[in-house]
Amino acid sequence: MRLTLLLLISITFNVFAKTPPSIVFYYNDVDSVRELINYDRVVVNANLITDKQIQTLHTAGSLVFAYLSVGEYDGEILPSTLASASPAKNENWQSHAMMLSSPAWQKHLLAEAKKVTKRGFDGLFLDTLDSYYLFTDSEKEQTLQQQALAKIIDSLYQLPTHPKLILNRGFEVIPQIKAPIYAVAAESLYDSYHPVDQTYHKVSESDRNWLAGKLAEVKARNIETIAIDYIPASERERQKDAAQRLLDEGYTPYISDGLLYEFGTSTIQPVAKRVLGFYDSQYGAMNSSQCHRMMAMPIEYKGYVPDCKM
Predict the structure, then answer these.
(1) Nearest to 26 by CA among 62, 55, 61
(2) What is the three-state SS of 149-174?
(3) How does 165-174 read in b/e, with b if 16+ C-beta sit within 10 Å?
(4) What is the pLDDT of residues 47-93, one digit of tens each?
């Protein structure tokens, strides 16, 4: 049986001078943490990483944050206990915008946060903080939701582990929050991704100026600002240039694909550690193939990840 190997050439780290710690937002399955340990801070879907992998990242010196959607429920069907707490839908992502003032939703969020912080996560990445704008028209309604949002964020910090909190936008409520804010992130400062048609676009100058102004207010509070822009992983040089521009402007950069399924560029360039091998399934399953039996051990010994494909 033939065994074909495609070796991926490692990319040298590109460490910028006087840089903040690197960060990765990675929402794909975590089959190995070999790439993730390159980053100082790791944001992942808590359902796609094991406790052992979290411990490995800690051993490598990485802080690990769990993704938590605060303003939306991303399941297809709302549980009966939450059915009355969702007045609108986010059509871009096919998720349910939630009423932050709902006791049922607040209880749900706190239960989810307790569950992940008990597993050893260092902090929480709080997403969809502005989704209440999908169903609030009046200033009075918006103020009510903003007050509830600030209360939710403060209650998350009061969990026994006092998790570090990274906010995704939420600019209007920052002055109301009593808990310490670890960092504030914002997507699409220069480059955006449209999930409906899966296309990449440049951000308009007016939108960019508005967002830059909001981030300047955050910086004035001595809070780290993280800028997340979207450029396909196939365009590494563009990613590198975009990250450098953000860094020069005083942001912690992260540039990746629109779904955050790839290892993107931060203050470091990702190091390719995958070795691709092929096997013929007519001779048996992957775990009994020569690709697995003969390639895996020496490849893993060298610090790489074997990836056997049919």
Answers:
(1) 62
(2) HHHHHHHHHCCCCCCEEEEECCHHHH
(3) bbbbbbbbbb
(4) 999 999 999 999 999 999 999 999 999 888 899 999 999 999 998 89
